[in-house]
Amino acid sequence: MIKSRILIAAVAGAATIAALQWLNLRRVGRIPIEARGSLQAIAERILPQSAVELLPYLALAITAGLCEEFLYRGFVMAVLIHVGLQTWTVVLLSSALFGLAP
């Protein structure tokens, strides 16, 4: 029962963040190119410009995020659980440490 609530909350949160990001990208897309400033020029050099560039970009973004989560949080959570902390404390501490990490 609790796991299904957590899953529903996670999916709802992810959908909300995705929707807000999509709306923001549409808003920025309506701004004339001249008014976007130097950040637009940097973004055009960094972000993929074609489908050929998009596939490796997405693969790198997804694997970097997953590896970071599994290695960092997984390691920290395993250590904190091994120390004997309660689950909720482990989640809060690992989240705080992850947020503070450079």
Q: How would the blueprint of this fold be written?
A:
Layout: H1 2-29, H2 38-46, H3 51-83, H4 87-100
The major sheet is characterized as:
none
Number of helices: 4
| Low-pLDDT residue intervals, each spanning 5 or more residues | none
Order of helices and strands: HHHH
Beta-sheet strand percentage?
Answer: under 5%
* Overall body shape: elongated
From the N-terminal CA to the C-terminal CA, the straight-line distance is: 36 Å
Helix content: over 70%
Q: Which structural category do the helix and sheet elements fall into? A: mainly alpha
Arithmetic mean of pLDDT? 87
Number of strands: 0
Q: Rg from C-alpha positions?
A: 19 Å
Quick overview:
With 102 residues, this protein is an all-alpha fold. It has helices at 2-29, 38-46, 51-83, 87-100.
Structure in words:
The chain is mostly helical and 102 residues long. The protein is 82% helix and 0% strand. The protein has helices at residues 2-29, 38-46, 51-83, 87-100. Helix 3 crosses helix 4 (87-100). The model has no long low-confidence stretch (mean pLDDT 87).
Task: Considering the chains and any ligands shown, give keywords for the structure.
mainly alpha, 4 helices, single chain, 102 residues
